Amino acid sequence: MTGALSRCACIPASVVLLCASVPALAASHVFLIQNSGWMEPFYTDPASPFKPLVAEIIMAATAPGDPMVLAAFNQGLPGAPSPRALLSLKVDPVPTRREVVKALAALEVAHKPGGTALADTDLNEAVGSAIGTALGGKPGLVWLVTNNRNSPNNDQATALRNRDFYQLIHRGDAISKALAFPLQMPVRGAQYRANGLMVYVFAVGAQGARELDALLLSGRLQRVITEPAARLKPLDRDTLRLVPRKVSDAPGVAFSMAPGGVLHADVDAGTRAPAAKIEWNLENTIYPYTIASAALGARSVLGGENRAIELASTQVSKLAPGKSAPLASTMQLPVTQLPGTWSLKAVTSAGSAYVLPGRIELQLSDQRLELSQDFRQRMATLFPGDPLPDIFTPPAQIKGSSVALPIEVRVHYGVGPLVAAIGAALALLGAAAAAMLAMARPRKAYVTVEDELRTMQARAGTVQPIYDKAGNKVAQLKTTLFGHQLTDLREGAQVRLGR
Known about the structure:
alpha+beta; 10 helices
């Protein structure tokens, strides 16, 4: 299958309609594989693991049902369009692997039209075409496998071209998240030699970012690419991780980190401490950047309360990627929002926990990021002479970042209130049953009318007329749970209760 991804008229209809014909939840993938002249040793070295690695990345990144396009790219010229689609399909693991391997096996280093000169490279053209045409502007993931030599028309100003590529990533709104995986791969060809290559993944749109996060969380990709992902975008959020180490001055309160990244604060039902002193590990999660300096601020949003968290230090400096620094804080507990022991919420939560969700927000201002020296050295080894680190220079407009840590305050209630409530309910039921029996049982009432003793049968809640010897109504007998009484007594009538 051939056709230019950059020109709709040259693409098979199945490629153009790929994203529109699949369910909204399916991820769309475009895999761009560089085959310009600079890639010659990756294709011609008999020991090159390049193609097998690409096949494994494709199979790890996709899931059954995902639509995908596999394309080769260099630089588009008249008569030699780029990118060029090699394969388009919906993923079904067994046949897909065979088709991917077959398509890659036929891929060779490209030449310029009408001659023997090897093709040049245009990274911007390839990524732009993948986003605008293959994905049609819809969410998805664009994968780029390259040696980072961005040199259209054999332009040797690679630093300038890499900055153009950098602008496409950071300045454009289409790419919501971007990662890079530098991989070591020493290869030697007839004309060039190389020490490594780079695998980029660009998430297009918010849905694309969620798909990328889900892929990384699954661990499938990490089984193929063991190198840590270098983050290109975003650099203004999720740059730190808070891990609790110790809680003091708050008896009955314990903190722990759940596997999903949610902080659990387990509180005993009787705890009413106004605040907790918490010691954290503040970990830099923004590889490959060192947080050279930043000002810190924190707040807790719990149960409708928005409170500042007092920090022992409001500055962070020289925090390398993957490293952590201690941070002490005093955090106000939302005690006024927690149900009392005898509340309905406490009773219904007996034996489990009442959960109050919220979050801890950490803000970094006046943030200054620097590319770590270890990463610079690694890039110099993998790409000698290539000014690649300039691509990773943080944008000047990013002066801060934010981190949100989900937290659940869980109050554990014993079964005592529940048992007491059940006992009270049973007692009320018993009393109600006794009252009903009392109301249903007939009672004897003695009434004397004109010196005549009468015995009457009456149930609670009833009213009976009383007549004299002449048949005239002289009173009424009203019966309650507490006894009898005469009502509507006619004036001058000789009627009384009892003998």
